[in-house]
Design goal:
The chain has 237 residues and is α+β, with helices and mostly antiparallel strands. It has helices spanning 7-14, 18-27, 45-49, 51-134, 146-149, 165-175, 185-191, 196-207, 231-235, and strands at 3-6, 31-35, 38-43, 140-142, 155-157, 182-184, 216-219, 222-226. The radius of gyration is 45 Å and the shape is rod-shaped. It is built from 9 helices and 8 strands. Among the domains are: 3-43; 60-127; 180-235. A 3-stranded antiparallel beta sheet has the order 1-3-2. Strand 7 (216-219) and strand 8 form a beta hairpin. The termini are far apart.
Length: 237
């Protein structure tokens, strides 16, 4: 006579898991009915006899499934290790770039500080020298460095004993014209996408404007142009 058992009861009787019962139902080795919304497993004598052999098959399938999971787990572990290595490399690259950027910024400010110190020293020296020379009524000329005020003309002190305070301040301010008002010509041409030949041609033409235009200056062989000025205006094109 057939036995009507719930899934859990059938699993306990056959000594297998509930998943194994459902697998047998899908394969058709077990039959089931539904009564009042509950699924019952119909166990016959033949299915009970087949229980041990089917259980072995189920165990083999479960073992194979476990081995597959182990392989997949190992693959995921390797992928995770690779991702961690990539993450560490990216972090190291980011830190290196930040350090390089910091060093470049520090170098720029260091150079500007040195330039400002040199300008201040020159200004103090020239003003002191002018004060000493003024008492002898000897005409004195201050020529600002081309690195700071290429646009300024020499300032002459003639027929004057000393400079008044406003005049001294004006001379010093002229000598301390901000570097932020200028831009490096080479970097500017690079930003605009000029070819190597075009950049050389433009640099040569602008180099000839040194001393002729207030919008161009030379700093240790490096050309600068005033910000806000277009190349066409400077070149006269």
């Amino acid at each position: 006579m057939d036995k009507k058992l719930t899934v859990i009861e059938a699993a306990k009787l056959l000594g297998v898991s509930k998943e194994a019962i459902y697998n047998r139902l899908r394969r058709g080795s077990l039959q089931s009915i539904i009564e009042n919304g509950v699924k019952y497993i119909l166990l016959t004598k033949s299915s009970l006899k087949e229980g041990p052999s089917i259980r072995k098959i189920d165990n083999v399938a479960e073992n194979a499934y476990v081995e597959l999971l182990k392989v997949q787990l190992e693959e995921m572990k390797l992928k995770n290790e690779k991702l961690e290595a990539d993450k560490e490399r990216l972090i190291a690259d980011k830190e290196r770039l930040l350090i390089e950027s910091k060093e470049k910024i520090e170098m720029i400010y260091k150079e500007r500080d040195e330039q400002l110190k040199a300008i201040l020293t020159l200004a103090n020296r020239q003003i002191t020298h002018t004060g000493n020379e003024a008492s002898t009524n000897t005409p004195t000329t201050i020529v600002p460095s081309s690195a700071t005020t290429a646009s300024q003309t020499p300032f002459s002190f003639e027929e004057a004993d000393v400079l008044d305070e406003d005049e001294e301040n004006r001379v010093v301010e002229d000598m301390f014209e901000s570097y932020s008002d200028w831009r490096d010509l080479r970097s500017y041409l690079k930003e605009k996408g000029f070819s190597k030949k075009e950049k050389q041609h433009i640099s040569d033409k602008i180099g000839k404007k040194i001393g002729q235009l207030n919008d161009v200056m030379d700093k240790n062989g490096k050309l600068f142009i005033k910000k806000g000025k277009k190349l066409k205006e400077i070149l006269g094109e």
